[in-house]
Amino acid sequence: MMATELHFTKGHGTGNDFVLYTDAQGTNDLTPAQVAAICDRHFGVGADGVIRAVKSANLPDGAAALAEDPAAEWFMDYRNADGSAAEMCGNGIRVYTRYLVDNGLVELGPGDTLAIGTRAGVRDVQRSTTGFQVDLGRWRLEPGEPVVRARNLAVARPGQGINMGNPHVVVALADAEELAAADLAYIPQIDPEPVDGANIEFVVPHEPLVADGVGRITMRVHERGSGETLSCGTGTAAAALATRHWAGRGAPNIWRVDVPGGTVGVRMFAAEDGEHVSLSGPAELVFEGDLSLG
Ligand SMILES: N[C@@H](CCC[C@H](N)C(=O)O)C(=O)O
Fold it and tell me: Which residues form a coiled coil (predicted)?
């Protein structure tokens, strides 16, 4: 059923902003056009995406989450600003956790873990010193070397495909000037074009790359379905993983990633089923409102 009246909360993680609403029973879905209207920065609330808080049991996509972990009571139904569905959102899941906690929908004490269903599988979230930390799970370097062209960049550059549950292509640029010059208001071109599209991260390593055992990079991103955003959580993890891959042996497993909207932490660690990557950073709720979708 389509919603017409909506009580919503606006939140963000390092400037990656979202409109969140509760639909526990799964009876108040939005059409892609409604999502796009809400996310419109001139005629709507304005956001990079919409997050519907729905119980996993009340959503077809939630069945796989409950089969993976019966504790995943809540599902993050994530939509990009153009209304398309995405598998995962690393900033969004931290903001979603704060939303669930602040609205009394879950309890999460220090050291507790909250399992959340997503289209990429169940993700575990905990409180951290900077806000929340999410285990983004297993990741995969994609084969091949796609070529990326962005407006105002003099040369095409090779990219590294990385699957974080959602698709990414990471591109290393020469320096901060080149990073600033890229015009990400236009969709960068990837050759060959990924079948499902991709989020594209442009990265510059700090000089030196590693300080006190922590790798340091700066990143800008063009998100699939949303355009340039101030941050992308899964994108920061992909960028750190790609940079570690390029740096080779001895590169650190702890990274600090600066994005236009702030800074997040990325950590690679050994888990039972192989290496995982986690993301930590802030999660803020900014205001609430009611909207009529007409
Ligand atoms: N901003 C997100 C990613 C949101 C989904 C992405 N645009 C996609 O289509 O995969 C993040 O913080 O990870």
Answer: none
Report the candidate in 148, 221, 209, 211 with the shortest Cα–Cα distance to residue 179.
221
Residue 277 located in a structural domain: no
Range with the poorest average pLDDT among 3-7, 13-17, 155-159, 199-203: 3-7
User: What CA–CA distance (Å, rounded) separates 152 from 170?
Assistant: 17
Q: What contacts 219, CB < 8 A, 6 or more positions away?
A: 201, 202, 203, 204, 235, 236, 239, 257, 258, 259
CA max distance for the chain? 57
Structure confidence by residue, pLDDT tens digits, 230-247: 999 999 999 999 999 999
- pLDDT tens, residue by residue, 94-144: 999 999 999 999 999 999 999 999 999 999 999 999 999 999 999 999 999
Ligand 1 pocket residue status of 261, Cβ below 6 Å:
no
Q: What is the CATH number of the domain that holds 95?
A: 3.10.310.10
Q: Is the ipTM of this complex over 0.95?
A: yes
Q: What is the mean pLDDT of the chain?
A: 97
Catalytic residues: 89, 232
Distances in whole angstroms, Cα of residue 24 to Cα of each of 8, 93, 162, 265, 267 = 14, 17, 33, 31, 32
- Give the residue numbers spanning the domain of 55: 5-137+282-292
In short, whether 232's Cβ falls inside 6 Å of ligand 1 is yes
